């Protein structure tokens, strides 16, 4: 099943918050664990790259979805196409789609992690490669956030149970085509956020906000919630801090992984994903949309009706750009009056979120969950093969429900 839908977020009319189904108009192939960004000359095309094609796992097509006509196509692309993969990170900058890392998408016994750096030009439709000098080690399920032409890479995992600490912040300067490793600290060492994978990151008011994620170890095989569900990194000082929200005992901040995070002004929408704090045998999929308002007071709510109360409060405030995957200038306003979130759901619990504002299409994120076996791409110089004798698949299906789980 391949679902395509969008959610219109109207800050002046909360009664119009409803999903619109476009599945009958778009013949989307069954692909999971892909990455998607908005690009093209007019920034009105959704490019879908990577992932696992359910019928042909070795397929490495680039799909283009026209947001004006709902037409899906496979453009003719020049350059060497990278091996198919999943679990990579992506950002879009000046029409170029930057993808780092990921995991081999083909089936097999061993797990293969990549540390190659591929760049897809959505305007000229060609593949390029970026520098790997001083780049991170091979990893998956990390996050990438672009801030004024610099991509910040946070977290992920480099082996089945190896997670880099969040004191390590890799930066890639797009103009200089150079990598550097920075050290982050915490305002209070007791609240240093823990290592994680499968989290999200967005940019709000010049700060990177990470949310959710999981970790595991050789001793603890199940996914556990990352320490500090939500944390903020000041990009100027590289200091982590923990925000406070008006969460109650009966309405706790959800502990999720492989969810989506979307920023609209000073508001963060968290949707879909899986819970890390629900026991096996229970439905661990998230079916709600959670709202976090940054500023004063900071608010957390699981109800979309909160938007109605936010309309007047946001009216007089300067607007913050809306995307992790866009060149961010905190002084540049953006419209909050008409925002559309477009979702592409591939499989029963797989989807992609995109924000389209009145003036520009700003953001495209994805969440993907399904049953997949992993494998390797032989003789690839930019990959690391992880031998895992305990299991043929790192991702397994729980029945019911269909969720993403992991074994060592």
Automatic annotation (TrEMBL):
The residue ranges flagged as biased composition, category Polar residues, are 394-408
Q: Which organism is it from?
A: Rhizophagus irregularis (strain DAOM 181602 / DAOM 197198 / MUCL 43194)
Listed Pfam families: Beta-prop_ATRN-LZTR1
This chain's protein is named Attractin/MKLN-like beta-propeller domain-containing protein
Residue ranges of the Attractin/MKLN-like beta-propeller domain? Answer: 46-278
The reply to whether Repeat figures as a keyword in the UniProt entry is yes
GO annotation, cellular component aspect: Golgi apparatus
**Could you list the residue ranges that cross the membrane?**
339-362
Report the Gene3D superfamilies cross-referenced here. Kelch-type beta propeller (2.120.10.80)
Annotated region Disordered: the residues are 370-408
Q: Which UniProt keywords apply?
A: Kelch repeat, Membrane, Repeat, Transmembrane, Transmembrane helix
């Amino acid at each position: 099943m391949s679902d395509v839908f969008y959610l219109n977020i109207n800050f002046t009319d909360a009664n119009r918050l409803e999903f619109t189904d476009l599945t009958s108009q778009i013949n989307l192939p069954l692909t999971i664990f892909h990455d998607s960004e908005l690009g093209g000359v007019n920034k009105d095309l959704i490019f879908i790259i990577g992932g696992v094609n359910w019928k042909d796992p070795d397929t490495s097509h680039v799909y283009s979805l026209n947001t004006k006509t709902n037409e899906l196509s496979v453009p003719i692309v020049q350059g060497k196409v990278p091996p198919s993969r999943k679990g990579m990170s992506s950002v879009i900058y000046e029409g170029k789609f930057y993808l780092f890392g990921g995991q081999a998408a083909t089936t097999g016994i061993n797990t293969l992690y990549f540390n190659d750096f591929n760049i897809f030009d959505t305007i000229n439709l060609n593949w390029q490669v970026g520098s790997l000098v001083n780049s991170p080690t091979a990893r998956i399920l990390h996050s990438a956030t672009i801030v004024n032409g610099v991509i910040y890479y946070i977290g992920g995992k480099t082996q089945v149970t190896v997670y880099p600490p969040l004191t390590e912040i890799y930066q890639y300067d797009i103009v200089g085509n150079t990598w550097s490793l920075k050290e982050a600290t915490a305002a209070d060492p007791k609240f240093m956020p823990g290592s994680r994978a499968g989290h999200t990151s967005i940019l709000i008011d010049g700060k990177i906000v990470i949310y959710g994620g999981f970790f595991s170890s050789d001793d603890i095989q199940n996914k556990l919630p990352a320490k500090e569900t939500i944390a903020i990194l000041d990009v100027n000082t590289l200091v982590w801090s923990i925000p406070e929200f008006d969460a109650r005992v009966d309405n706790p901040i959800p502990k999720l992984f492989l969810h989506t995070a979307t920023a609209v002004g000073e508001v963060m929408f968290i949707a879909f994903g899986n819970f890390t704090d629900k026991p096996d045998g229970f439905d661990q999929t998230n079916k709600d949309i959670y709202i976090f308002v940054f500023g004063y007071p900071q608010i957390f709510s699981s109800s979309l009706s909160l938007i109605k109360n936010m309309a007047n409060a946001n009216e007089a405030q300067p607007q913050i750009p809306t995307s992790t995957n866009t060149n961010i200038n905190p002084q540049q306003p953006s419209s909050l009056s008409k925002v559309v979130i477009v979702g592409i759901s591939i499989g029963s619990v797989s989807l992609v979120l995109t924000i389209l504002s009145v003036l520009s299409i700003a953001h495209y994120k994805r969440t993907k969950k399904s049953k997949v076996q992993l494998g390797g791409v032989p003789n690839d110089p930019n990959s690391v093969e992880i031998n895992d004798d305990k299991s043929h698949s790192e991702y397994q299906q729980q029945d019911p429900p269909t969720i993403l789980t992991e074994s060592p």
